[in-house]
Amino acid sequence: MSWLYIFIASIFEITWAVGLKYSQGFTQIKATVLTLISMALTYVFLALGVKNLPIGTAYAVWTGIGTVGTAVYGMIYFDEPKEVLRIIFILLIFIGVIGLHLTTKTSS
To answer: Could you say which of 6, 34, 60, 69 is the most buried, measured as most Cβ atoms within 10 Å of its Cβ?
Structure first.
């Protein structure tokens, strides 16, 4: 369950990061509310996940998935740069996340 909580927390991490763009400096009320809710939920699920995972691993996976997801979203929806080197480095982060997941055991 801990890994599922970290994954859910990561989705909310992406949601609030992207929400910052849509909130336009917290001037768009609907986007602002969704961003703030996502911020709260990301920490709730992160807290649940770290109950049985090493904090360093959980945090690295959480931010890694958030980073990759936000960067990919930006490339697709905000027309951010899609240079080969940028994509390679994003893939390296993704590979690191997978490696951390595969090499970490949860504690009961």
So the answer is: 6
Q: How far, in Å, are 4, 71, 89 from residue 22 at the CA level?
A: 27, 15, 26
Q: Which two tokens stand for residue 30?
A: 């609907």
Q: Report how far residue 8's alpha carbon sits from residue 77's, in angstroms, rounded to the nearest whole number.
A: 22
Distance between CA 22 and CA 55 in Å, rounded?
31
Q: Which two tokens stand for residue 26?
A: 């917290």
Helix or strand or coil: residue 24?
Answer: coil
For 104: left if phi > 0, alpha if psi spans -120 to 50, otherwise beta; the answer is beta
CA distance 52 to 107: 5
| Residue 54 lies inside a defined structural domain of this protein | yes
**Contact assessment for residue 54 and residue 104, using Cβ atoms and an 8 Å cutoff:** yes
* Number of domains present in the structure of the chain: 1
**Could you read off the pLDDT of 64-104 as tens digits, one per residue?**
999 999 999 999 999 999 999 999 999 999 999 999 999 98
